[in-house]
């Protein structure tokens, strides 16, 4: 009886393994892609938006029956939660390196993308961030770093000129969250305001974990600003807008793409009305593939697109396109082809310059009107 049980168990195992063995004999190759973003914490909604874009791209590619070097390619996405923490980001990066991923989509913020980038560079693994904007990310001399969006210098320059020339503000206060993203964007914004003959009347600092900004805002109120710029994420920008209203501060509030989410409106409530935020990229209605992407995204995930999922979707396709042109899934062979990308994606035409920045960086400014983000300015 025991022998027959053992024999049956072995047969059962063989029957389970047979499809995999057949797939291997048929020439299928498994390609692992890494995805790193905050999947927990105060900006988990942003990280999950990015993860969802990458997931959808992998599913679409697998459904297309992609063949490279005579073998059918099946992509597998390995998602890691970096918790928006630079130290955890390096641990995540090491895990992805150890998993021998072919490429990485991420990280979300500059503060996590920059420290992780060294590990990917040392391992020769391409890294494409759909959302990191600090110029330093692609200025390290690494051949493995790319980004899908405009950097803080481009963003800050457009924003600074816009508030002085278009909104006609004269007195500007700045708050930043001391992260690589928030501080970097605030620095560039300040330079642009000054070069446009605007006046910075106060600059304050907070953290990306703070929720009470009463003391900072009360101090700023005494300087009578026309506008307050916030360098940081929606998790802090929402409470700032709410507390500005409670304190009777009538200044306009503006920030970067970390603020331009439905979550800010949820957090700020009525105080969100009139808030401005810039986004890297052209307006969604002008993105050539956005309508089709939005339909698929909503059908698959039963939720609204936030900001960066179209870019993470395109980033995965950039990797697949480089593999096709190199006729190889080996990152040593397809890495040089990423820099030569000329791909029409959901977000538009994708090309990179010599350091991995997009050749054409769009900036769009939105304002909350009647409870919805509305385009008020766009520049390429």
UniProtKB/TrEMBL annotation:
Record's keyword annotation contains Signal: yes
Keywords: Amino-acid transport, Signal, Transport
Entries under InterPro entries matching the protein: Leu-bd, Leu_Ile_Val-bd, Peripla_BP_I
Domain Leucine-binding protein: 31-370
Pfam families: Peripla_BP_6 (PF13458)
Keyword Transport: yes
Signal peptide: 1-23
Family: Belongs to the leucine-binding protein family.
Stated name of the protein: Branched-chain amino acid ABC transporter substrate-binding protein
